[in-house]
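Quick start: read one record
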Amino acid sequence: MLTDSPRDRAIRRARQTFGANWRTTQMAEAPGRLELLGNHVDYNGGLVLAGAIDRVVAIASSEAGGHATVEVIAGDVASDAVTIRIDDCRDWSTTSDEIGPVDYARGLIASLLSRDLEVHGGLQLSIAGNVPIGFGMSSSAGLCVALVLTLACTEPEARDIVAIARETEHRCGSPVGAMDQSASVAGGVILFDGRDASYTALDPDLGDFVFAVADSGITHALGTSSYPARVAESQEALGIIKAAATPNLGSLGEMTPESWEMARSELAGRLSSVLESRVDHVVSEVARVRLGIEAVRTADWETFGRLMTESGRSSNQDYDISHPRVEELVDELLEIDGVAGARMMGGGEGGPALALIHRETVPQVAATLERGFFQRNPSHLQGDRLQVCAFGPGARIDRL
């Protein structure tokens, strides 16, 4: 289990790699996030409730002379530093199944160059984090946002940071929306609008409740999951609906349940049952988020928990993006007193379950899972497999 801070670990590994006299000149940090409600609707132009968490990716960097290269060590996942030639990254992208921090650095450099933005060369970077990888908390978004802050010579505006980080994920094979990066940049809890990638800060009063993630034991990687297929299916469904029923429709997330039923009656079987199910999820999920907004504003967490559970069922049944092990975990959580709601979270096909739990019952929930699901289903994760998450600040860079 990693007990020291990502900052301290990044600096220590840099000194082990680049020399004992290595000194940090800047330190960037960007958090992971919890997707509270609104699964797979950001790229469909829908609404999402999300929150930055108190787990971060940290990048310590130091001037090393020259401007043509960047050296990267990611000590949490690799033992050796890699030298990246900046000019070699023009138009870089990959479809590889094996994506690591160095690949994201290459993709980030390519994203900056594509915008004619100057890359801060001559740096030695050391990357460390405590956002679990493959755990549905968007470690990749935190990494990409921290890389923007580190490698852009002139710090972009918040909206541009989001766009550059998102493009980097696309270059690395994950066609994600902009919600993850927006939450990492903004900090706290946000209402994200997929229509224009704008977001509004919220200040929820959790009262006696906490959000926690429970490890299923199954990791996931967006680039090799069904995530790209769901993006393609959504676009296909949108095209058919626009051509046959609603020509002015901008995105699936703009449809209300009523307008979807009207459009469905006009389609006359043009949509396959699979595509209908995908639209069912998007439309019902955005409706749930709208109800969730009011629940957040009134601190009605019992209602919010029910909406979370419904979201997970739709994500599993209509969007087919969950995993049997995760659903087993969700079912077990929902049987435990004190759990107001639970659902799969993130891209799907693995990762954790998100649970809304009465604060006083967290120890009992953890103990019940230890005797049950966790005992039956081992994991590579070290440390507590039920982790309570607090909302935290957004990305920042300190120049030292």
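The longest helix spans residues 273-297.
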